[in-house]
Design a protein that fits this description.
Helix content: 55-70%
Shape: globular
Order of helices and strands: HHHHHHHHHHHHHH
Radius of gyration: 22 Å
Number of domains: 1
Strand content: under 5%
CATH superfamily: Tetratricopeptide repeat domain
CATH architecture: Alpha Horseshoe
Length: 362
Amino acid sequence: EGTPSLPTSDSSVSSGSSARSIAMIKTIDDPFGICKGDIVLSLLQPDFGDAAQEKINWKARIKESIWQVRRVRKAHARLEAGFSEDNGTVDRGNQKRSSLPVDVDQVRVLGGIKNVRILEEDALEHLKSDEVDEALELHEDIIYAYMEAFKQRGEERKKNKDYIETKESFRQYLGAALHNIGILHCLNGDFADAESFFVRAADSKKEHFGAGHTEHISSLNKAALCHFAQEKYEKAYKGLWKVLKLLKPKCRCTTDFMQLAEAMNNLGCLSFLFGETDKAASYFGETVKVQQMVLKNSLYGGPKSVAKCTSLLLSISECNLGYVKMLSKDYKASVNAFESAMLSQQLLMSDTTETMTRTMEH
C-alpha cells in the first residue's frame, strides 16, 4: 500500500539541481500501531438497563478497545517473527525500555531528510516496547525533515530558472506522517490532538489518492472516532456515515471490509445513544455478517492473526447485537449472540478479562 520513494534523478529536473530522493514512510496501520478496522466499540457495562449507558466513559472505552486488540495482534506479530509468546497483559509502564536514544535536535542537525528511514525504523522499535512518547518524538521529527526538504526544493526552484517542478505532491508524504502522529496520540488517549492530525491527514490523502481511497478512509474513520471520544456525537455520526457511504461501493480487500464493519458497528453504538434501538440492531446485524465473511475468508487464505483478531472483533459486535436484542425482549436471539461471543472469547483470551466478564453477566 506504500508509495515508492521518489527517484534520485528526474528527467523534469535540470542536471544542476540538488534535489534528493525523499523516503516515503509507511502508515502504522499495523500490529504495532492501530490496524485498520480494529476499533470496534462495545455497549456492554457491568450493570444493566438504559441508565448504565450514561455511565460509559467513551474516551476510556475507545482507548481500551484500541489496546485490547493491539495486544492480540502484537503477540501474534512477535510469534510470526520468531519471538517467544507474549500474552499481551503487561502494562506499558512495566515493560523493558528499548536502548534506542531519542535526541530530536541532534537528528535534525546531523541528518535531516537522509535520516527519515532511520527515524521510521527507530520509532518502530520503540513501539514494539510500547514506548509511545519516544516514537511520537521521532515521527514529529520526520515531519520536520519533510518540511525542510520541500523548503529546499522551493529555494532551488527560485534560484534555477531551468528547474521544472515535478507533479509529485508534498501532500502524499505529509499525509502518512500526519496520520502516524494521530495514531500515536490515540495510543496515548490524547484524542483532541489526534483529531487535528487525522483531519489534516485526510485532507492530504484526499488530494493525493482521491476521495474514498482506503488511505483516505482510514484517516476519516479515525477522525470520527476521535470525535466520539470527545463526546461530539453528532459530528462522529456524520463522519462515520461519510466513511460508510464512500467505502461500501468500493470494498475489495480484507482491510476494506474490516473498516466497513468498524464504521457500521460504531454507527450502531451512536444510534443506540440517540435512542434508535432498531437502527442500532440493524447496524450490528450487518456488522456481524461482514465480519463473518472476513473470518471465513481468513481461515482459508490468510495469516492466523487475522482470523483470531477478526474473531475477537466479531464477538464484540455479537455482544452489541445481543444487548439490543435483550432490551427489545428478543431473548432467543440475544442468548444466541452472547453464547457465540462467549465461545470466541474463551478460546482467544488466556485469562478472564473485563470483556469476558461483561459477556458472561449479560
